[in-house]
Design a protein that fits this description.
- With 319 residues, the protein is of the alpha/beta class.
- The protein has 13 helices and eight strands.
- The protein has an eight-stranded parallel sheet.
- Strand 1, helix 5 and strand 2 form a beta-alpha-beta unit.
- Helix 4 runs antiparallel to helix 13.
- The radius of gyration is 19 Å and the shape is globular.
- The model has no long low-confidence stretch (mean pLDDT 92).
Length: 319
């Protein structure tokens, strides 16, 4: 078994010793071949999956979903209903796997925790002034501590994109390490908002920066901007976690979020995982989908494979 992400900082201590050394390391990473990256992502997306493998892939994808509601109009009733769906996505077929987690705002963590009690479904909470991340560090840490105190198993934080784009890498690193400490036993997912990072080189740098700071997962996006998870940016992050483990012995998870809506999309991402990082990441401890509508399509396709009939969107609950 790989060692835990909390020891990652010790593997490359010299790299994070100063702002200049961190900058030198991040800018010394190999440049991304944009044409090659996008061509490989497109090529892997054309792989065909046969019926038996598709049934396996659908159940695996269901088990990897972080079922999410992050709206200003969220109510305790909506969160309880989402929790019930996470535990039993298809009440008519108890063989359907549960989702990995329910993801909510910090003030809804306690409600979500009650809704999934005894099921094994985790409760994740966004924090650190999600989605913009525009708040003082003490406010962000208080946000994290509130979520953990309410019972969150996982924390999804957003990085300070302004600091990152200004080249203030040590500030971003120190903020992630502070959030990691405040998270305690909760696993930490670090969100880059790849749609705002402008270049693939920046996504590679952000991936390594997050992992050096102790991220348990690196996550593409908040789902709140125009460009979210894509096969290309997810492939790049999968290459980063693969290479990071090869260099440090530390395994880090990946979570694409936003814009993944169909079973066909999910299967493409699972192919990316298998062909890039490998089978060790084909588990919900190491790979997640940040999605809501995706689950409905997975359930409809699963029902079609099981019964031979396609029941349509009224077969599943509307989130």
């Amino acid at each position: 078994m790989p060692i835990t992400a909390s020891s990652a900082a010790h593997a490359l201590t010299d790299v994070t010793a100063s702002d200049s050394s961190l900058r030198r390391f991040l800018h010394g990473l190999p440049g991304v071949d944009t044409v090659g990256l996008e061509a490989r992502a497109a090529s892997l997306g054309t792989r065909s999956v046969k019926t038996t493998a598709k049934a396996y892939a659908i159940d695996l994808a269901i088990s990897m979903v972080d079922l999410t509601t992050l709206e200003g109009a969220d109510t305790p009733g909506k969160v309880r209903a989402l929790g019930a769906k996470a535990v039993h996505p298809d009440p008519t077929d108890r063989a359907t796997p549960s989702t990995a987690a329910v993801c909510v705002y910090p003030d809804m963590v306690a409600t979500a925790k009650e809704a999934v009690a005894g099921s094994g479904v985790k409760v994740a909470s966004v924090a650190t002034a999600f989605p913009a991340g525009r708040a003082a560090l003490d406010v962000k840490l208080a946000d994290v501590r509130d979520a953990v105190a309410a019972g969150a198993d996982e924390i999804d934080m957003v990085i300070d994109r302004g600091a990152f784009l200004a080249g203030r890498y040590l500030k971003v690193y120190e903020e992630i390490t502070a959030v990691k400490e405040a998270s305690g036993a909760a696993r930490l997912k670090v969100i880059f908002e790849t749609g705002e990072l402008s270049t693939y080189d920046n996504i590679r740098r952000a991936s390594w920066l997050g992992m050096l700071a102790g991220a348990d997962f690196i996550k593409t996006s908040t789902g709140k901007v125009a460009v979210n998870a894509t096969p290309a940016n997810t492939l790049l992050m999968l290459e980063a976690v693969r290479d990071f483990r090869a260099q440090t012995g530390v395994q880090v998870g990946v979570k694409p979020a936003g814009g993944i809506r169909t079973t066909k999309d999910a299967v493409k991402f699972l192919v990316l995982v298998n062909e890039t990082a490998g089978e060790d990441w084909l588990d919900n401890h190491w790979f997640r989908f940040g999605a809501s509508s995706l689950l409905n399509d997975l359930l409809m396709q699963r029902q079609k494979l099981t019964t031979g009939r396609y029941s349509g969107p009224d077969y599943v609950t509307v989130d």
